[in-house]
Design brief:
Four copies of one chain form a homotetramer.
Chain A lengths: L10 E6 L4 H14 L26 E7 L5 H10 L7 H4 L1 H10 L1 E2 L3 H6 L1 H18 L4 E6 L16 H9 L7 H11 L3 E4 L9 H10 L2 E4 L6 H14 L3 E11 L1 H8 L1 H19 L7 E5 L6 E11 L5 E11 H21 L4 E2 L18 H19 L5
Parallel strand pairs in A: 1-2, 1-4, 2-3, 4-5, 5-6, 6-11, 7-8
Antiparallel strand pairs in A: 7-9, 9-10
Helix pairs in contact in A: 1-2, 1-13, 6-8, 7-9, 8-9, 10-12, 13-14
Chain lengths: ~400, ~400, ~400, ~400
């Protein structure tokens, strides 16, 4: 692990959706790593490429958050153990840490809250965040949205201008869905905001302006963990070999709550939009072919994606690639949330504000960046981390 | 296409295995492109990234070579048309160009030639190459090996030192198999050498020294066109996401002459060696799992590769990826041979000698480079091409 | 081929959709087989199991029909040649036979015809069929629907009773879509009717009564050629090994006109209904999991189906099967149309009337049968063919 | 469960390889079913098709056997629990039953035993079997071989004649490997013998004669649980649709002890032979294409088989099917061992002797039967079970 040259800042991670599968897996994994019950697999910032960058340490992290669900974290962790997401025998040994985090969680913010009493909801969220910071004497707080996919918000003039937006909220107008409202609460309370879920939170100009105004960073959106991860690894191969992709069809089957939400076409819209962008960006054209998401309860947290790619090479010869990806979404997403929290905390220390394009590596639809090629994104990330660390003097000796 | 600022050099491409499937497909495609009967699909150097690099033009290319087979090129092209590698209707329209190339081809060099009369074989090859250069008044000649996979040569002291090697050949000792002997003939006749096939030609120290001594470039080995191409696109994704690859099994089924050669374990050895290197290099460890090559006549030129990758993420969670690649090896390889000839001709113009690490992008087992990550190889290639062009003044206005 | 002991009847096959892909492929294949340009692959009734059954001979067949399209059959055949459905070189050699069939084709029946002037449309179809029979002096005529999938007809009282139906048509009421109207025309003109497409034609009680009244056989519906064929081959394996299927998801990608029609949810309804029945029937329960049909133009006539089956065995252990089927729908369907015509002609010779359950082998949703297990269907077919042949004395010596 | 009309016989199952994965899974599953901790999934004889056949009941079964391994059954069961073959929480609750079975197990028979002291080994096995029968007062004993695959025995004259064989064993000649020696011990002690593993035990004529002489049944060989199960479900589909299979390639990856044994070409020979037979039998020809077995430790008990089938239909059109089977061999095999024991006990009650062709459903290479079509095998099995039950009066009221 890294050995920072400056005193470790006290840092906090506050989760919107803190009892969801991703958040629970993350909290279990964090506690297990701190207790030496789990290795660093899946965490990007534990790679040797980050040695010496002086990222905040995992043992120093304080986790909080809110959720509309009330099932205790330990219980949620046991459910994930039964589902095979979390290995048998771990939850028992970290139950105390889970209970400690659980005790810090506050009530979630519902669609009804933001529709009927947005000003009150915002005030309550700000109070919760301030209480979290104060109670644990935190130098930096990163808020991460890991709640369910939200449909795009209905357009409203206030979305384009930070002053109009703040005025609308003051006037108790229902112009934001939960995730963007949490983003406003975070930024106006001195916390950075990361949208790991597809929502409008990081793409509304008014919220980006708010981040700039408060000198706080933003990152998003929609964690890249499965089919899209593969697309951004594979599409450059076709592009750079001058192989023309004629069709790229993607069929996603998933169970769990996420699968159920995404089987609803309204909710799926944000997700399908963010899934379409990378191919256009990398190939320079949009190949034919559908992208489908279907709910199959039996698959649980294991998402199965089957993609069929037809392409054309020299003399027009037709060829095919197909792949089947069977990944556990929660296990893939959870460590990235920890990575993002550490990296955004680094950016906070360097006084960076607004969207962070260098974090594009983590997202399907990166805010502030048009780079979708996975390898380039990784290079950009490493370069940024080292440069930022050097600039702020956090680089380890 | 590029518009060079200097007069185009007269350049030639001399093929070992000029009547094989790759060479025939390449020659058909070259003629079709020059006649505007085919687009640039599959050719890397036709990408806009190479605009302004001033690569030699396709219409100026003179193609020659040798082969142990005697079936005329037009006939071979018709066979590929029937097999679906070459589209219907093209061969008829470029038959004259094929006949012109065919008339330039000389006798191939057999295992018996190099075993019984190596000195005579070498002399004959040098004479053939000199005649080719003189007849067409060529400024630069690139020799490319696209013959069948050769087993590794039996080790011999002369392989380590250029003077010992030349002395051994003078003494008519059978120390080289056909491809390395052709490399010696090329380099001692002023031609560059590219090994597109797995052979020992570019890895023997004595031959690398020979290239340096004559100020000529070398590139190789084993064109990266299918399963390994995918491995080098996908393995970085696992490495950079800290996902531990537990096993990677690759099953390759292919028909055609190549399939038959590779079903022979002795010949397959070179191929299997070059297929194993990339994962070790990218991941830092060799995952469990076999790599198999089997001959299935019915598949013809369409190689089907099925790979199963099992990996481990956060908290040790097990996941899987499998892919099926159905590519036409000849159609994938042929344009890369043209790319390599152009790029090596560029290097010759810049006076570069010895192995060219910047061409690693094209090879399973790149000579002079330990870079196996596909995206980094592409970046290195573009950077090198631009730098070389700038240095030699071939950059277009 | 079979050697019938009785004089071969003169028989005719009249196709609804005679210029579609299935019909064109069938007509090309029929002419090619008669001219010894193609083997018996794909035709069930050419298997040795049918030796001695005395089915009508292919050379004696007279093909006619109608279509709303006007592209000549030869042209349609050339399109299929380009698409790779029909091998190069065949169409040229049977162009005359195609022209002969083409000359017999009459105008198709449109949705507008049956909505605005159903009585006139029926009268015209009957006249066409009678003219076809008379012109060629045919003993038996089989009408087969190979037109596009039709949405289910809107329910109407007349569908339940043959007399009400005939009265409604007399009164020029628009109670039938094209396929059922053709069925009425066929049955009232002395021809048998086969529904190879999903439509309501063979499932309306009134039409089944009409067949009984006229002593004519019916068969249908929806030819079983791809994913469903596999389902009915595989599902019995799970059932008989007591392996509980937890989910069965099927993703179908197809190009061509059929793909376009089925991308329309209204038209797809009939198809999706017929695709769901077999699993329920074989397993005794409906497993979870979607069935999707998507249009991917690039795939042309090659339908790609990917199915993921999750199942549970001893002690609840979870397992998986996935398959990818890449079949040419037209090539799979075309020979079955010839098979059905021959078998229905056999039934006509035996005086069988109404739905023929023994032909369930050919259909996704077999009229008159609840048997969906493929192997049992085949056994039933062979048994029926032999019994029927014996009863009618058509058995060869 | 069935309610036999006659008093249940006391019956025993004696396992060669009683501590192996299949045997352990079977014993765990048996105990779990008897204790109502597991359902009937995976057991063929629990299907309603066997209602009323009067098979011996599971609660009445006494399990014994031998093994060369000495790890206690409970420990083996815990290993399988960790590997995910047996669900968490079951082993604890049946530990007593496992210990009871464990106490009955005797020393296994090694390759060295049968090579150096065959007569003594045979005598010891007979004594063990007699003791097992006597101790539990058993009416019928079925011996089942679930040990590792054995290479074919070296041919010896004594294999063709029962008297020569018995004489050779009396003379202490090393003419049999362990499994056939156990078969001789079983049959000469009044027990039936089933070869669930590929060995020579049930195919040597001398052993078949021995079974006939003692009036005891034999069944074998090589349980059909994965790729071959699918082949015999799918190949009839191709045959009966007149689709010509051009190639069928099968790649099997498996971990565990079985994988290690089969990675050895000598041991794999028996297995590969039994895997090749079904296609020849069903299709009438042997398609091109390899069958490979490779060991991939990480896969554990989950065998992954990938098959690529290329085939030809109407007008020679080429198509493909590929499937990936991910099954747990132990979970698939274990219930079939219980099924076989029950069915062979039924045959013993009916006085049937020699190979039982009606049990072909369970085997890759069925002794006494050339029927490989899965559906027909199932029909034959049901018919036989009912007929046998009726003949012996075991049919339930």
């Amino acid at each position: 692990m890294d050995a920072p040259s400056t005193p470790t800042p006290r840092w906090g991670l506050w989760l919107l959706g803190a009892r969801g599968s991703v958040a629970t897996t993350m909290t279990v994994g964090w506690a297990a790593m701190v207790a030496n019950l789990a290795g660093p697999e899946g965490m990007v910032t534990q790679l040797s490429a980050f040695d010496g960058v002086g990222l905040p340490g995992l043992p120093d992290l304080v986790i909080g958050g809110c959720d509309i669900g009330e099932v205790p974290l330990v219980k949620r962790a046991e459910q994930l153990e039964t589902a095979g997401v979390v290995p048998h025998g771990v939850v028992d040994r970290i139950a105390e840490e889970l209970a400690t985090v659980d005790a810090r969680l506050t009530a979630g913010v519902t669609a009804r809250d933001v529709a009927e009493h947005p000003a009150a909801a915002l005030a309550r969220l700000r109070a919760d965040l301030t209480a979290f910071r104060t109670a644990h004497d935190l130098d930096r707080v990163v808020v991460v949205n890991v709640a369910s996919t939200e449909p795009p918000v209905d357009p409203h003039d206030s979305h384009r201008d930070v002053d109009l937006l703040l005025a609308a909220l003051d006037a108790d107008l229902a112009v934001l869905s939960p995730a963007p409202l949490v983003a406003v609460a975070a930024l106006t309370s001195g916390a950075a905001f990361v949208d790991f879920t597809p929502s409008s939170a990081t793409v509304l100009p008014a919220i980006q302006q708010l981040a700039e105004r408060h000198g706080l960073p933003l990152a998003g959106r929609d964690g890249k963990t499965g089919e899209t991860l593969l697309k951004t690894a594979l599409a450059p191969m076709f592009a750079d070999r001058a192989l023309r992709v004629r069709s790229w069809s993607g069929m996603n089957l998933l169970g769990g709550g996420d699968g159920q939400t995404l089987a609803d076409p309204t909710h799926a819209r944000s997700k399908l939009e963010s899934k379409a962008a990378p191919l256009q960006a990398i190939l320079g054209y949009q190949p034919d072919g559908p992208v489908r998401i279907d709910h199959v309860a039996d698959l649980g947290d294991w998402k199965t994606a089957w993609d069929l790619i037809t392409f054309e090479g020299f003399l027009g010869t037709r060829m095919q690639l197909q792949f089947t990806w069977q990944g556990c979404d929660s296990a893939l997403a959870a460590p990235l949330v920890l990575d993002l929290a550490r990296l955004v905390a680094l950016a906070m220390g360097a006084g960076q504000s607004g969207p962070l394009p260098a974090l594009a590596y983590f997202f399907k639809d990166p805010v502030g960046s048009s780079q979708h090629r996975l390898a380039e994104q990784f290079t950009d990330l490493i370069t940024w981390a080292r440069t930022t660390a050097a600039a702020t003097g956090t680089t380890a000796a």
